[in-house]
UniProtKB/TrEMBL annotation:
HAMAP family: Rib_5P_isom_A (MF_00170). It is an enzyme of class 5 (isomerase). InterPro entries: NagB/RpiA_transferase-like, Ribose-5P_isomerase, Ribose5P_isomerase_typA_subgr, Ribose5P_isomerase_type_A. The keyword Isomerase applies. Pathway: Carbohydrate degradation; pentose phosphate pathway; D-ribose 5-phosphate from D-ribulose 5-phosphate (non-oxidative stage): step 1/1. This is Ribose-5-phosphate isomerase A. PANTHER family: RIBOSE-5-PHOSPHATE ISOMERASE 3, CHLOROPLASTIC-RELATED. Belongs to the ribose 5-phosphate isomerase family. Keywords: Isomerase. Catalyzes the reversible conversion of ribose-5-phosphate to ribulose 5-phosphate. Homodimer. Its EC number is 5.3.1.6. One of its GO terms (molecular function) is ribose-5-phosphate isomerase activity.
Length: 226
């Protein structure tokens, strides 16, 4: 079993009957969703899922997981999602799979947020992984110029045919190649104030539990007090 599968299966143990569960996106969250499908079938687990992307919605529907939109639920009990990087103080970046907007919305309304990662995602400081910024297409070249002027090394994310990648909300992603983010809160606040920016991949003060897959000692679970 690979580490992503290991943490995906481990995380599903926190899901109890009757819960509303935020279903993350990506190759790690994939295994968690599969495990929920298995538990529903084999153990009669009964939950409602709130998906964070069209891709996860498709997977969950195929497994027969009952779904509601984020607007149909009062709150989400627990959200389980992957991450691109997690720093020593448990701040994170997400959006490598371009699903950051829905992921952040679902996480915001969730009582608990579990991140599942393999050990390669644990870093001292955030920033080696490009930071995604979701922007509306109108005015996106202006934002690219602004980010360049601020020395944020922006690059529009494209598909294989060279066209800008479109998110589930039909926006663009600008990746910032920063190498190191010295002050994630300052950068997040600045990005929050730029017109045309819909959301960014800095997920700060969000996770409450991190489940890490390690090759030496298996699963390591860390409770993060907020
Ligand atoms: O934020 C995400 C998608 O937008 C993913 O959770 C993140 O990119 C990690 O993905 P993976 O588990 O495939 O490494």
């Amino acid at each position: 079993m690979n580490l992503k599968q290991l943490v995906g299966i481990e995380s599903a143990k926190y899901i109890k009957d009757g819960m509303t569960v935020g279903l993350g996106t990506g190759s790690t969250a994939y295994f968690m969703v599969e495990e929920i499908g298995r538990r529903m079938k084999e153990e009669g687990l009964n939950i409602v899922g709130v998906t964070t992307s069209h891709a996860t919605e498709e997977q969950a529907r195929a497994l027969g997981i009952p779904l509601k939109s984020i607007d149909e639920v009062d709150h989400v009990d627990i959200t389980i999602d992957g991450a691109d990087e997690i720093s020593a103080d448990y701040q994170g970046t997400k959006g490598g799979g371009a699903a950051l907007l829905f992921e952040k919305i679902v996480a915001t309304y969730s009582n608990e947020n579990i991140w599942i990662v393999d050990e390669s995602k644990m870093v001292e400081k955030l920033g080696a992984f490009p930071l995604p910024v979701e922007v509306i297409p109108y005015g996106s070249d202006q934002l690219l110029r602004l980010f360049t002027k601020k020395e944020l090394n922006p690059k529009i994310r494209t598909t294989a045919d060279g066209n800008p990648l479109l998110t589930d909300s039909k926006n663009y992603i600008i990746d910032l190649y920063l190498k190191e983010i010295n002050d994630p809160k300052e950068l997040a606040t600045w990005l929050d104030h730029q017109v045309g920016v819909v959301e960014h991949g800095l997920f700060l003060d969000i996770t409450t539990r991190v489940i890490i897959g390690t090759s030496e000692s298996g699963v390591k679970t860390i409770e993060v007090s907020r």
